[in-house]
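Model it.
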Amino acid sequence: MPSMYGVPVNTAFSPHLRKSGSRPVELGDLGSSAEEGVLHSSDENEMKGVGNPLSTAAMMPSPTFLWRFKVVLFLIWGLSCCKIGWDSVMRMSADLRDRFLYEAFLYYNPLLLMAFMVWLWGANLWVFSQANVNYGKMFDLDQSHLTHREIWKCAIWMTIIVPTSMTSYLYLYSHDEVSLAASQPVFSYI
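Modeled.
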């Protein structure tokens, strides 16, 4: 067993003598066979289809682009909900419109308030994180509590689902599909 600087070296396997993704090289195999083993293992990786990790990472869009794309999709969704809702309400007569808006308020007001409450909960957790307050310890929570980002993901989905359901309710009710329109609030509460 050779030693380096008086410290014995294990000759069985050494992580410093191999490349990532190749087979371990034994110290006894040093010389031309070690180079052949490394070349052989890289040839095997090329044949298996294991590529350079940089080539696959270069194909991913940037996080800024993805965020902007999500914002654009969210704005398109919001504008289409507003347009469909406005056209559906203007299609109704005045007395039917008043009764309908009252029913829509009764059905969707609790859901919108709940979505707003979840947004505020996430904002509260964000303020705690910005002030370096350990709210998990303060409120005696275990380590699996939700962060403000996870809460905001839930709030985003609630914000998407509730107005979409309300828009479909408006559309179906204005097009005399009352039985289908009546199912929309039920699906939202499930």
